[in-house]
Amino acid sequence: MTNREQHETFMRHALELARRGWGDTHPNPMVGALVVEDGRVVAEGWHAQDGGAHAEKAALAALGRAPREGATLYVTLEPCSTEGRTGACTEAMLAAGIRRVVTGATDPNPVHAGRGLAVLRAAGVEVVGGVLERECADLNLIFNHWITTGGPLLAAKAAVSLDGKIACRTGESQWITGEAARADVHRWRRLFPAIAVGARTVLKDNPRLTARPAGGPESCPWRFVFDGLLRTVVDKNMARVFTDEFRERTIVVTTPHGGLGYVRKLREQGIKVWCIESASQRVPFDAFRRKCTEEKISGVYFEGGAQLVSELVRARQLDYLFAYRAPVLLADDRAKSIFSGLRPERPDQAVRLADVRHEFFGDDALMRGRVAYPGKLLLDETVFSLK
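^ thats the sequence. predicted structure below, dont judge the formating
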């Protein structure tokens, strides 16, 4: 086994450790670390939650002694070099006597990128960087966006047929994708601090909007319901997101056009309401993004419906897309598509994905990536009405 292969083997181990913090570290990143002596892992650690010990310090604490000469510390993200709440990891590593460090991704914060590695090298530590860098960076999609833009990652999920349909002409949609793909959706729900749906989805499907991973406990992120006219409150049989045991995790995002009476009714139920100024019944996504930033909600996972996610694209506010595709062909012009509202005249005017990742879940395929918009987004102004 070459040095590079050995480094990658240990870094994959560190990545698995980092994933133990899945969904629990916001707004911090997931990080895994391990100490290797004579080709064997002797201590490991990971960042478990915001405010807790960083992975490097957790691994050194688990070692419980000074590392032996020639020991190597592997870490999925460049060690921090600023004091922060828990002290600089570079200082802790130097104090412990670590003389070789292998890292994955560079700190995405442009203020600190490369600084931790420079500190270590200046102190005489051998540093090997960029091992499984793409995988290590991909682990922290939400954190990377938050730290570089100062705002939340707005992502959407689509589960479609081969021809991009999410439902038959009858509206029947359960199920286009299989159980394995749906289980993966719950894994991403567990990661994101918030899930969002539109009013039509609530009225039609009455979803629970919780994360229910296989073999794991049910958890509830923030649940956003976009409802500019508060139609979901009119029904006397209120939706489960307004009445279940997690209702205090529900936030209705509306406009002044919804009516103060309905706002009071929601708040009496323990539901939070964000009433965002708008000239129409539609919630402006730029204002929603700013509100999430104020509330330190670093990522939102939009699960529908089709109009809501299409409006996100039209507004150039969708940052990331998870597109699950099933080996199913509807071939019906009247079947429902997930996206609409654009009018590109050439392929180079289309919205594309960048930094694309491919995964398979049974017979279903997931393509996910960052949304890249063309210089000019051509809109079809006849698609959306205000009804």
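The chain is about 30% helix and 25% strand.
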